[in-house]
């Protein structure tokens, strides 16, 4: 059985790591917050004081970090690659800039280490249920090695192409998600302002041509879906600041290729306004607050 190092135990990383432990994997875990490691240690993981300690003797290294600067800082600035066994496989699950993914993958390859960028879709609920979608960039052989581990955390695994391709596909997905959530919140707010019940309207949309993931599984209106972050004060889930980051990555990718993303740019500006109003730490479905009338 492979020894796995798991670095980054936030809202996504913790349930992913727990699913690996439940599947019988041996884990060494590391996070900047000791409290995050305590939960994994209680489940049977070894809490590592440093990232270098975590990767010692690891056959597989998995990282789930907030942004490009954290990934580059860990692997390049902290020279973690020098402490990873060249025979090990690195699976980088953060959502970062494609160019950052390619840079780190090239540095890993220079040391003889196979690396995949494998950002995920499915949110915290998917992470807890083990039903995530992995969107993978990298070589076929590396993906074949990673597949048994990914299948213990997710339900769908897609090979998008070479290094960085997983990040490109994830950015496209999250740009569309941001657009859909903002549009769903706008439509529900319009209906409620004109006297409709938000649950009734949501049910209508879910069975009509406006149906989308937000109306069916992640409704932004409080009380419509019991288990959605909106019904829990917008706590947990996928933070608005993280959505703003991903929409910014979409903008960077568009600028690099002269692609036109007018709706993506608009969604980015809406989330920037939302964050400036002090809501950046709330789940991204809290964009509804922009539309609600006092």
Pick out its properties.
about 290 residues; alpha/beta; N-(1-d-carboxylethyl)-l-norvaline Dehydrogenase, domain 2; 2 domains
Description:
By secondary structure, the chain is an alpha/beta fold. It folds into 2 domains: 3-162, 3-Layer(aba) Sandwich (Rossmann fold), CATH 3.40.50.720; 168-290, Orthogonal Bundle (N-(1-d-carboxylethyl)-l-norvaline Dehydrogenase, domain 2). 49% of the residues lie in helices and 14% in strands. Strand 2, helix 2 (34-42) and strand 3 (46-47) form a beta-alpha-beta unit. Helix 1 (13-22) runs parallel beside helix 6 and helix 8 packs across helix 11. The N and C termini lie far apart (57 Å). 49% of the residues are buried.
Helices and strands, with pairings:
Layout: E1 3-7, H1 13-22, E2 26-30, H2 34-42, E3 46-47, H3 51-55, E4 60-63, H4 68-77, E5 89-92, H5 98-110, E6 114-117, E7 120-121, H6 123-129, E8 132-137, H7 140-150, E9 154-161, H8 165-193, H9 198-206, H10 213-217, H11 240-257, H12 262-279
Parallel strand pairs: 1-2, 1-4, 2-3, 4-5, 5-6, 8-9
Antiparallel strand pairs: 7-8
Helix pairs in contact: 1-6, 4-5, 8-11, 8-12, 11-12
């Amino acid at each position: 059985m492979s020894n796995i190092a798991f670095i980054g135990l936030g809202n996504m990383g913790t349930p992913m790591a727990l699913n690996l432990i439940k599947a019988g994997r041996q884990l060494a875990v590391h996070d900047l917050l000791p409290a995050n490691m305590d939960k994994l240690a209680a489940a049977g993981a070894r809490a590592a004081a440093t990232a270098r300690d975590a990767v010692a003797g690891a056959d597989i290294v998995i990282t789930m970090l907030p942004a490009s600067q954290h990934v580059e800082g860990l692997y390049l600035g902290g020279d973690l690659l020098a402490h990873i066994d060249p025979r090990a496989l690195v699976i980088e699950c953060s959502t970062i800039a494609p160019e950052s993914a390619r840079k780190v993958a090239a540095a890993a390859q220079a040391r003889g280490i196979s690396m995949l960028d494998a950002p995920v879709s499915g949110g915290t609920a998917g992470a807890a249920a083990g039903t995530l979608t992995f969107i993978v960039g990298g070589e076929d052989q590396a993906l074949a090695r990673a597949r048994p581990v990914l299948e213990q955390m997710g339900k769908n695994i897609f090979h998008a192409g070479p290094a960085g391709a997983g990040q490109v596909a994830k950015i496209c997905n999250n740009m569309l998600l941001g657009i859909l959530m903002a549009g769903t919140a706008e439509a529900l707010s319009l209906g409620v302002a004109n006297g409709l019940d938000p649950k009734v309207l949501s049910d209508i949309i879910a069975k009509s041509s406006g149906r989308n993931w937000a109306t069916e599984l992640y409704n932004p209106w409080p009380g419509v879906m019991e288990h959605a972050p909106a019904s829990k004060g917008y706590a947990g889930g996928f933070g608005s600041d993280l959505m703003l980051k991903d929409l910014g990555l979409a903008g960077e990718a568009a600028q690099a290729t002269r692609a036109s993303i007018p709706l993506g740019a608009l969604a980015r500006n809406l989330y920037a306004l939302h964050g400036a109003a002090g809501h950046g730490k709330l789940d991204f479905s809290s964009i509804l607050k922009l539309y609600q009338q006092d």
